[in-house]
Design goal:
The complex is a heterodimer of chains A (107) and B (112). With 107 residues, chain A is an all-beta fold. Helices cover 0% and strands 57% of the residues of chain A. Chain A has strands at residues 4-6, 9-13, 18-23, 30-36, 43-49, 54-57, 60-65, 70-75, 84-91, 95-97, 101-106. In chain A, a hairpin with a 4-residue loop joins strand 7 (60-65) and strand 8. With 112 residues, chain B is mostly beta strands. Chain B has strands at residues 4-7, 10-13, 19-25, 31-37, 43-50, 53-57, 64-70, 73-78, 87-94, 102-103, 107-111. In chain B, strands 2, 4, 5, 6, 9, 10 and 11 form a seven-stranded mixed sheet that branches. A four-stranded antiparallel sheet of chain B has the order 1-3-8-7, with no helix packed on it. Chain B is globular and about 35 Å long. Classes of the chains: A mainly beta (107), B mainly beta (112). Chains A and B meet through strand 4, strand 5, strand 9 and strand 10 of A and strand 5 and strand 10 of B.
């Protein structure tokens, strides 16, 4: 079953922070995060495994709460290069992606 | 060296034709996938192969037939193309299932 991502779109100024959420109605074993720029392939950001851990990738970090079946991606002091579509993927035998959230960072 | 390469990058064809997309990975991964991304950017898994064996086959019309001659290659053949098949098709690989996916650059298929 497809995870649900929110909000639908995010528009930021450079330097602002943002949070993107991902939730599932099914128990989660892991959550993947990918970013896709226009006309390019999705690029892996991070995987979070059970345990409520938080991971980081540059100024992008994420948390995973398996009890709430939710993950959040935190973008701190956003840069122009953060613009793109962010997908979360949940794993239950296969990686199923949410619909993606378009994030635009403006100067 | 490109890790996951797929050809062609663009494919424009008429309805009813048959076409193939090829994918190769040089990462030594065991698992390969085909994903379809529609115009709304929805990224949906179609097939997954593990070491040449089909392990995931989503509800995809049987006009789509994947073939894995060896674990480094996963091709997608599409028969009797329809307008609704227009999309970007991504090949991907991972060391094993449930791990980081490495995507190819995609094939933009346009059916006229």
């Amino acid at each position: 079953q497809q995870p649900v991502q929110s909000p639908q779109a995010v528009i930021l100024r450079e330097g602002e922070d943002a949070v993107i959420n991902c939730s599932s109605s099914k128990a989660l074993y892991s959550v993947h995060w990918y970013r896709q720029k226009h006309g390019e392939a999705p690029i892996f950001l991070m995987i979070l495994l059970k345990g409520g851990e938080q991971k980081g990738h540059d100024k992008i970090s994420a948390s995973f709460n398996e009890k709430k079946q939710q993950s959040s991606l935190y973008l701190t002091a956003s840069q122009l290069s953060y613009s793109g579509t962010y997908f979360c993927g949940t794993e239950g035998g296969k990686l199923t992606f949410g619909k993606g959230i378009t994030l635009s960072v403006r100067p | 060296d490109t890790a996951v390469s797929q050809t062609p990058k663009y494919l424009v064809t008429q309805m009813g034709n048959d076409k193939s997309i090829k994918c190769e990975q040089n990462l030594g991964h065991d698992t390969m996938y085909w994903y379809k991304q529609d115009s709304k950017k929805f990224l949906k898994i179609m097939f997954s192969y593990n070491n040449k064996e089909l392990i995931i086959n989503e509800t995809v019309p049987n006009r789509f037939s994947p073939k894995s001659p060896d674990k480094a290659h996963l091709n997608l053949h599409i028969n009797s193309l329809e307008l609704g098949d227009s999309a970007v098709y991504f090949c991907a690989s991972s060391p094993r299932g449930a791990e980081k996916l490495f995507f190819g650059s995609g094939t933009q298929l346009s059916v006229l």
